[in-house]
Amino acid sequence: MSITTTPAPARTDAAAPAPAAATAGQARRTGFAVAGGALVWAATMAAFNPQATDNLSITVTDLGALPFQASLFALVTLQLRTAATGTSRVARGMLRVEYALLTLATLWTVAHGFVPAFRDDAWLAVLDAFWPLSMLGMFIIGVKIAFAGRWSGLARVWPLVAESWAVVTVPAMGILGATAGRFVGTGHLLIGYVALGLILALRPHLTGARD
After folding, report:
1. Are 210 and 23 in contact (CB under 8 A)?
2. CA–CA separation, 66 and 202 (whole Å)
3. Tens-place pLDDT, residues 155-210
């Protein structure tokens, strides 16, 4: 009599391993980065018209946006490490998609700001679409955080306030005009992302981060 054993097939539906959990210190630093980045962009937007066509205004407004975009990478990383959108593959996957959108949007900012010769190129016009797409992605993430309920208190609801920037500011510019819409965008950054950053910096435990 012979005995054979067949190993159990590997499961393909198991959840992806969770990344290292965030610490309160990491959440606090992310908060300060978000508040600072949003404040720099808001100040730049208030001082320079984003619709201006002169080289100086274009360069300054693009450079002013870079700290904000960099802070969003830190924010998405915190959201991923704290499973802010949930623990499923889809919930984590949407954050990884946002990484890609932010990368392409930031690439546009760098190329458009630093290399004036690229500004009329078709490929750069394609990349330009990822600026609003990345902000729309942040809005969807804000909605998911509110429903997932893994962050608590103000940290649960304020991402939706902050990350509604695109769905508030873009229509405002279309309805009110570039000048008025620009100040709507500036105010929304202060009320939204600067406040969110301060919430994370001052109350990091609301994200589930631990000391």
Report:
1. yes
2. 24
3. 999 999 999 988 888 787 777 777 777 888 899 999 999 999 999 999 999 999 98
